[in-house]
Write a structure and sequence with these properties.
This protein is 12% helix and 36% strand.
Length: 1463
């Protein structure tokens, strides 16, 4: 019992990380009820395992396979083994072996691989090359078992996730030095079920019961423990399945022991369950199989089946079961072909049948729990009539039943005119005379309809570009083409599912081709109707142009030319003056080649012609000549510096040299050489022996040519001697010596000997000047020699004599100090060591010493006597160190104990200064700083969005040319150092390859409208398509999206529609050839109105209260003005007026000839006036008209007042306004951002209802504002009024100002973002339509300008009107109007003002002819004022109604004087 407990404790410590269940030595497991699984073993075959341990791994594998031997077969459990180190190797695949004995035999024959540990690459190999799609079995579990003893030297996480993403359950078994944390990440979850670990190979097999159970349950089986040494058990778990009318399948779990086979007996049973006499049959099954199909049974019969295990000299146990066969089946139905509208149904003939009846109908309900209207679980599933379920669980089909009867010799029928993507139930019944025999049914689904079109685009006489729709469910496409008139076999190409275009080249010109596209779907293909496309007629082949030569390094010359459209081949002939001629042919895509070995002084004639098919164009000729070059002689080779191991030689520059070769050797030694880059004039030769003469040869290189060598002799300096050696410390068994440093020494050899012992020595590093000698005899004299060491050569020694100390004489002899024990390294990294030991009883201190084992400075550290471990830092990776620990008791010390350990090499650092030094169309030149000690470099590169590639290069390189790249492509390049510790962190650089040389398409604008721009460009030869893209330039406000469109390569122009008016767009055109984009051409344009005439004035509300919306208003105005097209007297003119509590004109029509000036005016509109809105400001003292405008607007020396609408109408859009043109439509645009003061509409209605008697402070002027708008809209000058209501405006109030106008003349924006953009676009379109209706009249005759005529005479005075009836008295109102305003309002009112109307003058009228009148105090009737005191215009005096009341402000007394006058 005690022994068992010890074993359990030992296993608990060994199985680190394993589940708590304890593995038993003698337990054996077999996996039952497992019929199919795929199990892959992934073995670590790296050098760290060793051959002896690899045999342990093979035994472990054999033990894992043993529980599944009975179920192993091609249809059951399949095994595969992959061994990996630097690269993975598949030992045998899942489909290679057919029985369990074959698997065990193959495992026993596995050979050991050796190498590094690249676990990540091995896992990816299993995912890509072992679990192949063609070997997959639906529903069968997939298991992978990883067995490794070390940490992976590459990345494993992504690889493991990829494998597990394929549905593979991943086990990880770690041994000894494996990284448990890494394996837990690799294993499936939970890791407690899929991760196992042992500390040694010798106990690996103790995991077998535990791992076998977990693998068995994961694969879907039931593990059963089989005691070792027990009697064999018979077969178990007999399952009888797949019953048919004449067959059954029997499956069982394999018997244990050395089974030689199985005997399967079966017999029909009577109604009482007894075997039918004479009916028993039997069949033999090999030992490796556990299933068999029993044939030749009777329908609807109960059978008893017994399986007996057979052994060499005995019969084992048996297992039995019963099952019933089904009724006799009808014809065996299959679906031979499906399309979207048809099904081809076939069956096997039924003996004795006189015909067949076929019925079919659409399934609309549910059957056996799955939706019949949805895709069927299995197309072609046979459902025999006798086994079809009936009762409430079956819902009737929804479609009508169709029927067709066929003769006895027909075994198939094509069902036509079916619905695509629909489930159909098809039943075939055998006809036996007049009766209907057995029937069989199946459910099949028609294919889904595929919307596909094939679009040809003729590129040249020999080339057609085909494009088609992308079908998401397609597995690929097959394209076939052949000449319409020929009988040859069609040419074919199969393309991936993501390709939607293909270019046909090498066609015959002027020939019709039949093109057919097949969309490849799962299990079927859909043909697109064939298209017959004629190629263009044959054109003459163009000559080769731009033929030129470029000299390369060495003796090479590159000849290049511009591509010839449609060329399929180029024919080149090169002839030298010596008569040597060679001919070569290049493909049509290549437009350059290199001439090698071009000798100086010779001329070469190069002839290049293009060929299109069998036709050849004119030949272009180029003469290439290399002038003789300067000789490659080295001058001035000399030694300029030297030391013990190095010499420096220098020489004069050699013009034209592409490099240099230097070699050196001793008189009898081997030669060494080095190649130097061009431009070198000096080099250091290192690693030489001290005091040695070398022969140095230097020659210049030019391509493959090497010049004559120059020779010199160089000698290294002799090795200097150590000058002084001294003793710095002595002990009873040790001594420390120090010496002076020798320049150039790489090491020092320290040797010592006494008179009675052999000489000992040690080699220390060149940095050391101290050495500690251990293991000396007490009270002994030693002679110590120190020599400098360089390159295997020792210098002259320096000596010193050392005498060790005596043992002290003590009163009583104490016991000697003991030595520490079990000194070992607990863990080590590249720069840190942790050592432990078992201390000495009574020790008061420990001396810890360490230094390089091959010699070098030794460091010491004193530790307390209670210490049993220490950490040593500051070490170097990959260096062997000697560590010594000496116990001290007082001043006595024990013998030192030492251990030698090598630190792991440090991970390589990233290479420095990685850069791109050259860019080509298909290559990138890279350069980096050399890395001393590197084992090599790993170069990885990936195009943007493409596949990554890699390559390992040698450690001597510091530059590399990446070739075979795509032109005009962005590449990411990584370079990492390969060292003893693996791969270091990479340095990264990103660069673009050069774009192919191609002429610019010269994109230009040829037309524009309010919402479109028409572009044109020069065609680019050889391109397959163009990508036209456009996007708005960045402007304030909401971001507007861009768009792009792919155009055929034959396109030369395109009209872009749906653009936003007044927004500047940048249009870019990118030519594309064979999927490679060329440099784009761009142009900027904004959609504008075509040429037209229009005078438009914009009115905007600008106050401090509305300043927060100034940006949106300015943006809207900028877009409107920009959309109107060119400005000027022969185009569109723009005016601008802002209003608050007063109108303020900002821009006259005749000042808008420059768009930049107008936009600057818009951007500088001030928002500084106080609050106010003169579109109905009730109670303001001025009503709708507001205060008089300030500025240059003077009529007869006074300021006009009135609404902003009235001011714009009278002074910006009036027929005599500055810049206003006759017969040109005028438009007034009101930008309103809030409700006007007062209820404009209701005030107008009240004024009309109550008449002049109710003309209060707001209503009468609301009516006048409405009247002014109506006057502007209905004036004879063709003036229109449009309103842009911004967010916050009252739509009902604004519509009241334009009663009777069209609804399209009012535009509302619900917000300052997209809503405002939509309203501005609609308004701009309306303005453009108005402008386009009037075109400028061309002048047919050019006449000289005449002189200005004389002023005309004053016209006659008009007749006086009839006297009007007296009006009722009215109260005075403070509403004012200047005299000119009063006169103008009176003259232009329609109908004329009646008696009783109140005309007001301002309180402080400007300087003018108005005379003061004497009056009374307010409220009293003043004195009569003479008519002349108003100084009204004559026309007003003639039209004044008789008896009307005129009110004039008296500035002296603020009273009012009234006179009822006759005029």
């Amino acid at each position: 019992m005690r022994l068992r407990l010890l074993v359990a404790v030992l296993y608990t410590g060994i199985l680190a990380g394993a589940p708590p269940a304890c593995a038993q030595h003698r337990e054996r497991v077999t996996c039952t009820r497992l019929y199919a699984a795929d199990i892959v073993f992934l073995l670590d075959g790296s050098s760290s395992i060793g051959r002896n341990n690899f045999r342990e791994v093979r035994g472990f594998l054999e033990g894992l396979v043993q529980p599944f031997v009975g179920a192993a077969s091609a249809q059951g459990v399949r095994f595969a083994v992959v061994q990996y180190s630097d690269d993975p190797r598949t030992e045998f695949g899942l489909d290679a072996l057919g029985s369990g004995s074959d698997v065990i035999r193959a495992i026993r024959e596995l050979s050991y691989k050796g190498g590094n540990t690249r676990t990540g690459a091995a896992i990816l190999h299993v995912a890509d090359h072992v679990f192949l799609p063609q070997l997959a079995r639906p529903g069968v579990p997939k298991v992978c078992i990883l067995i490794t003893d070390g940490k992976s030297q590459d990345l494993v996480d992504a690889a493991a996730q990829r494998l597990k993403g394929q549905g593979v359950r991943l086990f990880a078994v770690g041994i000894k030095n494996a990284d448990p944390e890494e394996l837990k990440r690799v294993a499936s979850q939970p890791s407690s079920d899929f991760f196992f670990f042992v500390n040694d190979f010798t106990i690996l097999r103790t995991l077998l019961p535990l791992v076998s159970r977990r693998v068995c349950t994961t694969a879907g089986g039931v593990p059963v423990a089989v005691p070792s040494g027990g009697a064999p058990s018979g077969p178990r778990d007999l399952v009888l399945s797949e019953p048919g009318s004449q067959s059954l399948r029997a499956q069982w779990t394999a018997a244990s022991g050395p089974v030689t086979g199985y005997r399967v007996q079966y017999a029909p049973l009577t109604a009482l369950g007894q075997p039918l006499p004479g009916g028993q049959q039997e069949v033999s099954v090999p030992a490796g199989e556990t299933s068999v199909r029993l044939q030749g049974l009777h329908p609807l019969t109960e059978y008893e089946v017994t399986v007996v295990a057979l052994y060499v000299n005995s019969i084992g146990e048996a297992v039995s079961g019963t099952a019933r066969t089904t009724a006799l089946e009808g014809p065996e139905l299959t679906i031979r072909n499906t399309t979207a509208h048809s099904l081809l149904v076939a069956w096997q003939s039924v003996p004795g049948a006189t015909g067949y009846r076929v019925t079919w109908q659409v399934l609309r309900g549910e059957w056996e729990g799955w939706a019949v209207g949805a895709p069927a679980p299995q197309t072609g599933l046979q459902i025999p009539e006798s086994t079809r379920p009936t009762g409430p669980s079956v819902r009737p089909a929804g479609g009508p039943t169709q029927q067709q009867e066929l003769g006895p010799g027909q075994q198939s029928v094509l069902l036509r005119d079916l619905e695509p993507g629909t489930n159909y139930e098809v039943t075939v019944s055998a006809l036996l005379g007049r009766s209907v025999g057995s029937a069989a049914s199946l459910t099949a689904r028609t294919d889904s309809a595929v919307e596909q079109t094939l679009r040809p685009d003729i590129l040249s006489p020999t080339s057609i570009l085909l494009s088609w729709n992308l079908v998401p469910e397609a597995r690929g496409y097959r394209l076939e083409w052949q000449r319409e008139s020929g009988g040859e076999v069609p040419q074919k190409v199969v393309l991936p599912s993501d390709v939607t275009r293909y270019r046909l080249d090498g066609l015959q010109p002027g020939t019709e081709y039949r093109l057919t596209l097949y969309t490849l779907l799962e299990g079927r293909e859909v043909a697109t109707p064939a298209a017959v496309v004629p190629t263009e007629p044959e054109l003459p082949v163009g000559p080769v142009t731009d033929l030129q030569a470029t000299e390369l390094l060495g003796q090479r010359v590159r000849v290049s030319w511009s591509p010839v459209p449609g060329a399929t081949e180029y024919r080149i002939t090169v002839r030298s003056t010596q008569g040597v001629e060679r001919t070569l042919a290049l493909p049509g895509s290549q437009t350059a080649f290199d001439l090698d070995d071009v000798r100086a002084g010779l001329s070469y004639t190069v002839r290049v012609s293009a060929r299109v098919g069998l036709r050849e164009g004119a030949t272009s000729i180029l003469t290439v000549r290399r002038e003789p070059e300067a000789p490659l002689a080295i001058a001035g080779l000399r030694v300029v510096a030297s030391d013990a191991t190095r010499v420096r030689v220098a020489w004069e520059p050699v013009p034209g040299a592409s490099g240099f070769r230097i070699s050196w050797r001793t008189g009898s030694g081997p030669e060494s050489s080095q190649t130097l880059p061009p431009g070198s004039t000096a080099v250091d030769i290192t690693g030489l022996r001290p005091g040695t003469s070398y022969e140095v040869a230097m020659s210049a290189l030019r391509g493959r040519e090497e010049g004559p060598p120059a020779l010199t002799v160089a000698s290294t300096d002799p090795l200097g001697a150590v000058r002084t050696v001294r003793v710095t410390l002595t002990g009873r068994s040790s001594a420390t010596v120090a010496w002076s440093k020798v320049p150039g020494a790489t090491g020092y050899r320290v040797s010592w000997h006494s008179g009675h012992g052999p000489e000992k020595s040690q080699l220390v590093s060149g940095e050391a000047t101290v050495a500690e000698l251990d293991g000396l005899e007490p009270d002994t004299e030693y002679t110590v020699h120190v020599r400098a060491h360089v390159a295997g050569v020792d210098g002259t020694p320096a000596s010193v004599v050392v005498r060790t100390g005596e043992w002290p004489t003590l009163p009583c002899n104490p016991e000697p100090v003991g030595s520490v024990s079990k000194l070992q390294i607990l863990n080590a990294s590249s720069d840190v060591l942790r050592v432990t030991w078992v201390g000495v009883a009574g020790a008061t201190a420990y001396r810890l010493a360490w230094g390089p084992s091959e010699g070098g400075p030794t460091r010491h550290q004193m530790l307390p006597g209670t210490t049993d471990s220490a950490e040593i830092r500051g070490l170097q990776g990959g260096v062997s160190y000697s560590v010594r620990v000496t116990a001290l008791v007082g001043d006595r010390e024990g013998a030192p104990v030492s251990i030698v350990v090598t630190t792991p090499p440090a991970a390589p650092l990233a290479p420095e200064a990685l850069r791109v030094v050259r860019r080509g169309q298909h290559s990138l030149g890279l350069r980096w700083q050399p890395v001393p000690g590197a084992h090599g470099f790993r170069l990885r590169w990936r195009p943007e969005g493409g596949q990554e590639q890699s390559r390992d290069v040698g450690p001597e390189l510091s530059s590399y040319d990446l070739a075979g790249l795509e032109p005009a492509t962005r590449y990411h390049v990584w370079l990492s150092v390969l060292g003893p510790a693996g791969e270091g962190s990479p340095a990264e650089v990103t660069a673009h390859t050069e774009s192919p040389r191609i002429p610019s398409p010269e994109l230009r604008v040829v037309g524009a409208s309010i919402d479109s721009v028409t572009l044109a460009w020069n065609p680019v030869s050889g391109v397959s398509s163009y990508i036209l893209s456009w996007r708005p330039l960045r402007v304030p406000g909401p971001e507007m999206p861009g768009a792009s469109q792919t155009l055929p390569g034959s396109s030369r122009s395109h009209r872009v529609t749906g653009l936003e008016p007044g927004v500047s767009y940048i249009f870019s055109l990118t030519p594309v050839q064979d999927g490679v984009p060329y440099p784009e051409a761009s142009v900027t344009q904004n959609p504008v109105c075509p040429q037209g005439l229009l005078d438009v004035v914009f009115l905007l509300h600008a106050t401090r209260d509305s300043a927060h919306r100034a940006g949106a208003v300015r943006r809207a105005l900028e877009r409107l003005v920009s959309a109107l097209g060119p400005l000027g007297p022969q185009a569109v003119q723009v005016g601008l007026l802002s209003f608050s509590h007063r109108p303020s004109p900002l821009l006259l029509l005749n000042s808008s000839h420059d768009l930049g000036i107008v936009l600057e005016k818009v951007r500088s509109v001030p928002y500084t006036d106080p609050s106010g809105n003169d579109l109905g400001k009730e109670g303001s003292g001025y009503g709708l008209l507001g205060s008089p405008p300030r500025g240059p607007w003077v009529l007869d020396g006074s300021f006009p007042s009135g609404t902003a609408v009235d001011t714009a109408h009278r002074h910006l859009l009036a027929p005599d306004a500055p810049g206003r043109r006759r017969r040109v439509p005028g438009v007034m645009v009101l930008l309103v951002d809030g409700p006007s003061g007062g209820d404009v509409v209701n005030s107008a209605l009240r004024a009309q209802a109550a008449g002049e008697e109710q003309g209060g402070q707001g209503g009468a002027w609301a009516a006048l504002a409405q009247q002014a708008v109506h006057e502007a809209a209905g004036s004879s000058s063709g003036l229109k009024v449009m309103i842009l209501g911004l967010a916050g405006a009252d739509p009902r109030q604004l519509r009241g100002l334009v009663v009777g106008t069209e609804p399209a003349q009012t535009f509302f924006a619900e917000d300052d973002g997209p809503g405002l953009d939509r309203a501005v676009s609609s308004l701009a379109t309306s303005l453009c339509q108005i402008a386009g209706a009037t075109q400028p009249e061309p002048c047919s005759v050019h006449c000289p300008k005449g002189q200005k005529g004389e002023p005309g005479e004053m016209g006659l005075t008009g007749r006086a009107g009839p006297p009007g009836a007296p009006g009722p008295p009215v109260s005075a109102s403070p509403h004012l109007c200047s005299t000119p305003c009063l006169a103008y309002r009176f003259l232009t009112s329609s109908p004329p003002l009646r008696a009783g109307s109140v005309l007001l003058a301002p309180r402080a009228p400007p300087e003018g002819p108005l005379q003061r009148a004497r009056g009374a105090s307010p409220g009293q009737m003043g004195h009569q004022a003479v008519p002349g005191s108003l100084v009204l215009p004559e026309a007003l005096a003639q039209r004044a109604p008789q008896g009307g009341l005129a009110l004039v402000e008296n500035r002296e007394s603020e009273g009012l004087e009234a006179q009822r006058g006759s005029r």
